[in-house]
Write the structure tokens for this entry.
Amino acid sequence: MNHLTRRTFLKTSAFAAAGAALTARSWSQVAGANGDVRVAVIGLGGRGLGSHTPSLLRLPGVRIVALCDPDTDALERAKKAMREKGAAVKKFTDVRELLAFPDLDAVTIATPNHWHSLGAIWACQAGKDVYVEKPVSHNVWEGRQLVAAAAKYQRVVQAGTQIRSGEGLREAVAWVRAGNLGRVIASRGFCYKRRESIGKTSGPQPVPPAVNYDQWCGPAPMEPLRRKRLHYDWHWYDVTGNGDVGNQGIHQMDVARWFLGETGLPRSTLSVGGRLGYEDDGNTPNTQIVVHDYASAPLIFEVRGLPAGAAAPVPASGAAEGRRGARSGMDKYRDTTVSIGNVIECEGGRVVTDSYFTATAFDKAGKVVREFKGNDTHMANFIDVVRSRKVADLRGPILEGHLSSALCHLGIISHKLGQAVPAGQLREKIKGNGPLAEAFGRMAGHLAANGVDLDKTPATLGVPLEVDAKAERFRGEFAKIANPLLTRQYRAPFVVPKIA
């Protein structure tokens, strides 16, 4: 950034000239090599203030020097929290101004999903290393541009898939892939996590006065606010969020693909689901099954936002627990303890994980044969690599984050292009797809327990998408209508650049 003026930086938002400024060779000339690593946190909601800042403050030789959020109330709360920890920070509401700040080595990004790729690419172009929350993208194309930016500008970019840094899961994956339970038959992920209705409004809602809505919308359309809460509930509105497939599900699909050892996209994807059990301002599914057909074994992911049955407790409207979801009162997968986690079914048994950093292996008779335990070291791993420049040591490399994020987007595209189909007809249409038919049977029972009649309020049967994994595009019958959904129309000047 030394050869770019602040004015030029803010005017262009391109930063390309700065990209090569901090190569591994020149790293020793900045503060992070021999002194503190200077970090800014972008996005100061629950994840940014509640996780990123305490994780960074625990690490020796790391200083939080700046905070950025278009919500000045959130910014003030975060600055006060930093002051109480003895950290003096600068405040920014515009990420471009933050990235022009010279005394900065790295950023962590905990914004809404629609900002993840653009914020990270701009940071790479500005010569900053990046920790970016999951999913790393709002669509497939921009995720690939972020991968290209990390390589072109020689930046350390860690995806916020922190399960990959848990030694327990790393050991479990290696153990399974070594063949200790035989071949993997199905790799399953689950997000049975309570999501209450976000309410139904009758028209545009006021934007909180502390929020710069232009900055908040960024690459997304600057539409009138049509939900009661701007914050958090953006997850359930598709121009800014990706539903629970892309919120919680990215973790479980990442783990499921990790166990399979698959290093690309699947051969095909198909979704069944909908927003069922209530009508509100959300437009992403609260109940969904996504099946990715890999050559090694199917990857099957399930979302359930409704409780185990009508008698289950429902959080009060607007309560934090209701917004974030809960495990209590939720279904479990078959005879396991899993409501949020993974079940890896193998010829000789299965591995079950119902927490981020532990797993248990069972033989076919259900006897425990091995347990795996570990801790979260993801942010520490990022800082270690910022110092060493050994990108191969990253536990959540951006390519892996992109691929697993893309799995979410494929399921979303299948759903968006689908049609509501009454239950009887739906069963007939999917009977040739064993994994999907089995999962739909269980899903239908779950919905019936919540009073949902799938003949009166049908689920959406998505279109079967044939994937060209190498090109990261669709081919076949639905390619013409599906390929445009791999990207979006960006709102100037917040345009994700194509990285050549």
